[in-house]
Design brief:
With about 140 residues, this protein is of the alpha/beta class. Helix content is about 40%, strand content about 20%. It is built from four helices and five strands, in the order βββαβαβαα.
Length: about 140
């Protein structure tokens, strides 16, 4: 199975884990529309070679704590929540299997060096890409 991690937001983290090969195929940061296009590409490739895909989408609506966040931070959270809803609607419309991932259910904000040691990925990554990757690593 191909597992795709999506870290929602203005800069969408995107990571593709191949559970048969036990390795990442791609880790990056895209716009929401670029990420949706990439998902369709992987779905079409999967259909061609008999492999299923599953999305693992961070659902900011499952976050229950915000600390001492200021107004700008809370507005950003609202935007991310909207993006989550868009992703879930899009998956349903395109008949793509997905699961919601609570922010607390995955390691986040991992620095590049420990991430590379843990995963074996040696290419450059962004924080958003690493967050997406941690949702699917090892599945």
């Amino acid at each position: 199975m191909i597992h795709i991690g999506i870290d929602t937001g203005t800069h969408t983290g995107f990571a593709v884990w191949d559970s048969e090969k036990r390795k990442f195929l791609e880790i990056g940061t895209l716009t929401i529309t670029q990420a949706m296009e990439r998902v369709l590409i992987y779905r079409n490739i999967g259909l061609t070679i008999g492999r299923e895909i599953k999305l693992h989408i961070e659902d900011a609506r499952l976050r229950k704590w915000y600390g001492n966040a200021g107004r700008e931070k809370l507005q950003g959270v609202g935007s991310v929540k909207r993006d989550c809803a868009i992703w879930f609607d899009w998956c349903k419309e395109n008949h793509i299997e997905y699961r919601k991932v609570a922010p607390k259910d995955k390691p986040t904000k991992m620095k590049a060096e420990p991430f590379n040691r843990l995963t074996g990925w040696c290419k450059t990554t962004s924080e958003h890409g690493r967050d997406a990757a941690m949702m699917v690593f090892g599945l």
